[in-house]
């Protein structure tokens, strides 16, 4: 018998009654079923067992990177042009063609290294992942707020992330581990000069750029391709924080950027970004001092001007954080007709990794979840069953036929496009080699020289503070790199660590490192 007094039932009998997931009414949600008021409990307490065992499974694995984030929804509006030129000269992707054409989008912002509940004021790249729900299926543009990355080959991704994550023994994030790895990874210098400047702590998500970082392709109706890089520019401008600003913000709570986004969108103050695209012909560009497929490099804007192609507006926050933020799944393999991969060695690794982790993290049927479904395109597959399959994808006329080919009414292959063959013919020997034009320092140096004085001061201070906690050989190697990046940076960081150019003069280039003539010239003048 239910103890009515303990049920807390009030006069509001109009509210809906609680049930189990089986649809059975729950008459008592306060007391288990027991033999007598003092127990013992019985094992057939279906309601209790369902409730507690579901709770026991409430968490799914958090993302291995970018665990802390927030999603918002809105639309992308195309300009129908790349700058002043008709866009169909370069891509046949439908979402870009007509001026004013709108496509639904989801955008997830994130930090990279911390866990699900970590601080949003951390010095860390910020994720900027956009899902376009187009009529040709989904397109994901999975980017970051900094235009370059630490490494250029996907085989090094787990190493760079392990170095940045907490120590596996005592779970502390340690400068010594981070700079141990970076000091042996000269291609990381460009990223480090950005990350440890004020740009490394964006003020919030609304005042932040986004970059596709990797190189992609656009393909037109005739099958001709060009290389492209994507840039998102916030209408509100870019704002960043110093280490001190960030410490103050963090003292007030760990989730200021998510809060800021909810508040702005809730107040009807919808944030907006413009999408700009840089373009170059689809070849190796031997005239450049970098490889266009190297994601540690920017494409100089005077030679490859970013031109606007559309704008994105966010106007809705998730109705349920778990369903729409924890379970949303982006990937670099998710492209639509008219957009394509390049041979960028990071991109291929990323393209495997995203859906691989999502099949583990969310489950094999993650693409059936409403937030991930290609909601504006028909999805017809013969993929069936598996954990948590909650509907069957559209089948052909004959539901018995879940295979292809068939003459009895199943799905058939889509009409083969006339423009399938595209891009240059590539031949080569199977090998494991660095790209020839590594040129690890010059753009990092240019970035340093473009900084205002206060930004340089902040960068030097951040490097000195962290490197002061590192072993001497790591400090020396970092000063050596910084002298190659830009003399002033090397001298100033060295001064802070009491390491002079003479102290590092004897260091040899790293194993396999390629130096330019300019790098060698600089080394010859050390001390
Ligand atoms: C998330 C792998 C490089 C941007 C992730 C996730 C993995 C991953 C496994 C978790 C995905 C999930 O659980 O849903 C890799 C690998 C990389 C790489 C293997 C290099 C080889 C990059 C780069 C960028 C980037 C260069 C920036 C352009 C992101 C973003 C997310 C993410 C924004 C979060 C997506 C979300 O909000 O759900 N990455 N990543 N990643 N990655 Fe990467």
Automatic annotation (TrEMBL):
Any GO molecular function: heme binding
Keywords in alphabetical order: Heme, Hydrogen peroxide, Iron, Metal-binding, Oxidoreductase, Peroxidase
Domain of life of the organism encoding this protein: Bacteria
Function (record text): Decomposes hydrogen peroxide into water and oxygen; serves to protect cells from the toxic effects of hydrogen peroxide.
Active-site residue list: 66, 144
Residue stretches spanning the membrane: none
Domain spans labelled Catalase core: 19-412
Organism: Actinoplanes auranticolor
EC number(s) given by UniProt: 1.11.1.6
Cellular-component GO terms for this entry: cytoplasm
GO biological process, one term: response to hydrogen peroxide
Cofactor(s) it depends on: heme
Region (Disordered) location: 1-35
Ranges of biased composition (kind: Polar residues): 19-34
Chain sites annotated for binding heme: 354
Name of the protein in question: catalase
Leading EC class: oxidoreductase
Similarity section: Belongs to the catalase family.
Pfam families: Catalase, Catalase-rel
